[in-house]
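Following up on my earlier message about zinc ion. Here are the inputs again, as you asked, copied directly from the submission form:
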Amino acid sequence: MQVSSASSKSEFTNSTTNVLPKKPTESLWLPRLTEKDFKLYSKESYDKKSYVAPQTEKCATTVKLLRPHKVSDDYLDEYLGDTNTENRTVDRDLNILMMNNLIICHINESPHCNVPHFELVQETQWGLGWIWELKCTKCKFISEKYKMFREIETGRPGRKSASINYGFQTGVINSNIDYCTIDGDAKSVKGLQEAMQEVFGPLWSVNRLADTIHRGQSQFREGIRANFSVGMFPGVTKAQKNDIKTAFVNDIKLRSHGIMRSLFMKYNGDRQQISKCLPGIVRYVVNCYSGNCGDTCRWSITLCNGGKKTSWWYKSINLNSHGLQNGSLIPTDRDKLLIESLLEMKLSQSALDQMKFFSNTNKCESVNRTISTYLPKIRISPAMP
Ligand SMILES: [Zn+2]
Ligand SMILES: [Zn+2]
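Thanks, got it. Here's what our run produced:
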């Protein structure tokens, strides 16, 4: 704002009375007004071609109002505006990294732009993740593109997946499958899976593999499908034998899970140490099921301590409820191979490798919890991002 003939000591404040010159003989330059202040002091002229300041009308000198800067200092107003109400989920550390990088790049490119004002110039969505490109409105600086999410190494060619999508998928999918299971409607589960695949892409099938619960289910399925010899299970009728087979396969599943949990506790999650003892454990468990339960059970993690009341045969609900004791099962060599491969579905290096994915989704558990708490308990339509 330019005010002719004013006191040089006059201080500029937002108070309207102080704007007027105190001594009408001196000229004074005041800083250009912000848009907000400009609206307070100005009025459109009669011809609507310029602005006048009504408060200076009685002033003897000429007062010239300069239009406000386009860039407002009222950032708060800007952020409260209608266009700035969207939320984004960004990685905390990547966000800090971006801020530091942005400042350094801006200084290098525009050394004379002292107080930058950054705005989003472009953002690209990648599932729940975002890629940002920023510009400085005070100079011509445009930043590089910043990925605001972490990526997952899928081992496949092509674009990498954002870990946030991965975790979200697992959470949403699991909660929805639970929901559908309660419905007892197998068809809707299948439909949902197809819908999810369409929405989330092929990564969805990786999730299925990664989920230990699902792996357990397929271990059960493979066990039921397995072609054990006729003499393996006691029982007179085919139905009796099948009944015992189901109990045995259930037992394999439960025992594998328990062994893995014990190993994680014993070795504090050290995968290298765990994988080293897995082959031995599988061998000993096969021995145990074959009736050679003894020292090998006692001195390794098979969940069996040998003997009678301390043996797995006695402790296992599945085996005990069907009257199975040490020596009840008579597996052939081929049967032993089948048992071994069923155990290896959970107790092997490759099973451990797949569990890496599982630990990855665990990190997103808090997000899943938030989402499942706040999302309405309805089926999620394929229209979701
Ligand atoms: Zn700048
Ligand atoms: Zn044993």
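One observation from looking it over: Residues 214 and 312 are 25 Å apart (CA to CA). Hope that helps, and feel free to reply on this thread.
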